[in-house]
Write a sequence for this structure.
């Protein structure tokens, strides 16, 4: 499935909430320390064989926690990285595949999976369905028609210079309005078009475009590829970078349809919105507004034939995974230079990805019935309750927040909804056509169905029970303007969560993830969203000054990390996630001790409870990644690479120093007076 415009969480599903309120809930103290059942990992939930005990914890805690694992682990040839997150995703993918292939005959997700696996039929059909679609594009005779076509790509294969989708209004967060963001690029981010370190990727992309145009019968594939790349390079030069685009103050630019037309002339906006089936709007939140104006001018000055070539390539590129082997292999030859992998993933894994993207909740319903027991949900509720209480205590004792800001923060925390595991109502996918003998047609049907479903929320009240992830997703998120945090069933498995694991392990693993997501409501961007979800800076100027001083120190620590030669962490891009990692550790540590209820944690295998907490944290982030993948992450991802998510926040955490007796002279040591005190 092609990616969709998302501002924070897309409209995907209705949800089960755990209505934990910091102001009216008490902590679940004195939890049973002795667990029932045997943990999935080791004797208490941590893999002690992964450690390198010859390494000093204070010199390299990642090495101490996972060094033996790192030495003996090879990155599979079809993956850009390996580690706890990616391995759990692989495990879940295997679980989902078994559900799909073992499902009763006639299920839609079974038919879609079979269609993807039916290689003989796919080869027999060849490029016929694609060429039929391209015939419509090639017949376009003017830019108004082309603008209409661009708008229609929201619901089909293709590309647009301006992405869009419904999301909560920053002024009235109970109503959905249209949000728009810059688009138009085939490479991952604008830096890929200019930075010398991505010369290999640019050349691979050019070669891929040329191969694609040749496969589509273009008489001058080299010339076509040059025109397409030149156009995208101009679009990239006019686009904002990733760090700018994460600042809600900069991207919160409201326009009516009429005002957008006047502000950014050069494109037939009426035709564009007609193609998208979007009526005239009183409020559109235009993210990178100055880029919109410049890109619209570029559109006006670019020959129609160049635009059609650009669109033709992207239609074919997005369709390629569902076409014959030659098209799949051609695309992989390019994408492998972004990820660094040498072998395409097995076909069945790509089939599972398609099913999850197309019919996610349909298979999710079967997934949670088999893999997420009610007992796990109950235990998660206890964890969440303690995390929210611990976060409230951190807010009250915070040194940089004024009393008024603390009051506003506590109100926001009290109204933060927590969604665990799976929705209590499921989506109806009856409108999707899934034919085991027609992969292309099935994907087109699912794409259109899901796009129309998302767009159906435009202009309607926000449904706070909607999910932005499938239950089988190994991830979690903070819903931004929706003031919610969501933890799908997929991530609620070992090593992140195990009902039979030691208390310290669950708090050091999933507890930190929960604290991380909660804290996003109070970071450099969360501070600009109030308890109701409205965009409003509820800090005082003095609060901001004190926070920014600590954040600057924190950012300088990260900027010093050279991930791969020539690529340092960008603290402007990663600031929110870095602070959330630090906050998550602090809050989860407090919540762990709250859960002990004043009891002393037992010593297990010579390790104190605090030591087990930090080992669990380090092991959920253990990872090995390819250099090209790391370069891509540093350039495009607001999350720091896994190694630095492990070691960087620990260096500012006093409890870690005490747990491991970290001393001056240890490589990770930071003097107390220089440690950051954000949370």
């Amino acid at each position: 499935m092609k990616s969709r415009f998302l501002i924070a969480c897309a409209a995907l599903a209705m949800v089960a909430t755990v209505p934990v309120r910091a102001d009216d809930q008490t902590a679940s103290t004195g939890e049973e320390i002795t667990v029932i059942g045997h943990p999935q990992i080791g004797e208490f939930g941590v893999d002690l064989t992964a450690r390198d005990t010859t390494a000093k914890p204070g010199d390299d805690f990642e090495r101490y926690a996972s060094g033996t694992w790192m030495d003996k682990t090879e990155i599979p040839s079809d993956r850009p990285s390996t580690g706890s997150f990616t391995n759990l995703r692989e495990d879940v993918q295997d679980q989902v595949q078994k559900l799909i292939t073992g499902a009763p005959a006639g299920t839609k997700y079974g038919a879609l999976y079979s269609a993807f696996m039916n290689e003989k039929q796919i080869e027999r059909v060849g490029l016929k369905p694609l060429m039929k679609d391209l015939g419509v594009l090639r017949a376009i005779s003017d830019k108004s028609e082309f603008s209409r076509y661009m708008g229609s790509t929201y619901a089909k294969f293709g590309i647009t210079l301006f992405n869009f989708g419904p999301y909560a209004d920053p002024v009235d967060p109970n109503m959905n309005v249209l949000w728009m963001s810059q688009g138009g690029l085939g490479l991952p981010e604008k830096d890929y078009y200019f930075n010398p370190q991505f010369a290999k990727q640019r050349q691979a992309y050019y070669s891929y475009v040329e191969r694609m145009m040749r496969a589509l019968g273009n008489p001058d594939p080299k010339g076509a590829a040059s025109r397409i790349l030149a156009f995208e390079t101009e679009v990239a030069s006019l686009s904002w970078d990733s760090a700018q685009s994460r600042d809600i103050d900069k991207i919160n630019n409201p326009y009516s349809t009429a005002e957008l037309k006047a502000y950014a002339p050069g494109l037939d906006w009426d035709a564009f919105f007609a193609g998208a089936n979007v009526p005239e709007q009183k409020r559109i939140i235009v993210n990178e507004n100055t880029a919109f104006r410049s890109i619209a001018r570029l559109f006006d000055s670019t020959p129609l034939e160049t635009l059609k070539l650009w669109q033709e390539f992207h239609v074919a590129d997005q369709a390629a995974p569902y076409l014959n082997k030659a098209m799949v292999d051609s695309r992989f030859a390019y994408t492998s230079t972004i990820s660094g992998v040498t072998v395409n993933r097995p076909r069945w894994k790509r089939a599972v990805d398609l099913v999850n993207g197309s019919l996610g909740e349909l298979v999710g319903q079967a997934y949670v019935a088999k893999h997420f027991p009610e007992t796990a949900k109950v235990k998660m509720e206890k964890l969440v309750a303690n995390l929210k209480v611990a976060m409230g205590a951190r807010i009250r004792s915070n040194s940089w927040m004024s009393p008024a800001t603390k009051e506003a923060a506590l109100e926001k925390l009290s109204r933060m909804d927590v969604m665990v595991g799976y929705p209590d109502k499921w989506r109806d996918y009856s409108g999707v056509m899934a034919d085991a003998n027609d992969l292309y047609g099935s994907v087109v049907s699912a794409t259109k169905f899901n796009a129309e479903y998302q767009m159906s929320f435009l202009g309607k009240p926000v449904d706070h029970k909607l999910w932005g992830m499938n239950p089988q997703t190994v991830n979690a998120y903070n819903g931004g303007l929706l003031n919610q945090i969501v933890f799908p069933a997929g991530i609620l498995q070992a090593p992140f969560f195990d009902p039979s694991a030691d208390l310290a392990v669950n708090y050091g693993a999933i507890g930190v993830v929960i604290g991380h997501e909660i804290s996003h409501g109070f970071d450099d961007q969360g501070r600009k969203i109030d308890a109701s979800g409205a965009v409003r800076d509820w800090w005082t100027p003095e609060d901001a000054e004190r926070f920014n001083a600590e954040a600057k120190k924190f950012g300088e620590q990260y900027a010093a990390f050279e991930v791969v030669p020539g690529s340092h962490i960008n603290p402007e891009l990663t600031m929110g996630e870095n602070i959330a990692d630090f906050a998550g550790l602090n809050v989860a540590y407090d919540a762990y001790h709250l859960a002990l209820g004043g009891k002393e944690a037992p010593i297990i295998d010579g390790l104190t409870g605090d030591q087990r907490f930090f080992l669990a944290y380090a092991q959920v982030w253990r990872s090995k990644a390819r250099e090209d993948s790391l370069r891509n992450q540093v350039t495009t991802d607001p999350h720091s690479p896994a190694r630095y998510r492990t070691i960087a926040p620990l260096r500012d955490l006093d409890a870690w120093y005490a747990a491991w007796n970290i001393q001056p002279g240890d490589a990770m040591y930071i003097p107390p007076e220089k440690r950051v005190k954000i949370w």
In short: The longest helix spans residues 571-596.
